[in-house]
Amino acid sequence: MRRKIPSIMRPRLDPQSRRRKYIWSIVRSVLMLIAMVALGVTFAVGNRSLQVLDVVPATALYDNYQPVEATDVFEPDDVFFVSVRMNDFRPDMELAARWSYQGEIIAETKLDPNYIDAGDGTGHGEDFAGFVLMNDDSSWPVGNYIVEIVYEGEVLGSAKFRVEQ
User: Fold this and answer.
1) pLDDT tens digits, residue range 96-108?
2) Do 136 and 108 share a structural domain?
3) How many domains does the chain have?
């Protein structure tokens, strides 16, 4: 069994060795602190998730995909435009709009990369995207519609609108 040597009997370090030991402990503490901060930043940035702040049906969209004129009523021959205001969008994210009429899905459109104003493209801050749905075959039926903004199978936002004669 090993015996613990009382502190009185331990050999004393010379001043240079004590100074080296002291400096090394400070350097080690600083490196640990830097590693913890870097790890925290990595997790904070990596865990940012897309947030849809607003979904606005509109008569048309500006070049930055903000609504020209918001509306919740369209005519049967209109084109449906939707402006989506969001936070933390990155270009590698696949965003879609699911369009429904009277509770039945009529279309799902993926976000065209040409229909996004992604700010600085870093995935930080507020961005706008635009979705468009046209009916080339005939007029839209009169009734209630909903558009849901979907990311990875989860609905992040939606808007209701209707078609009237």
Assistant:
1) 999 999 999 999 9
2) yes
3) 2
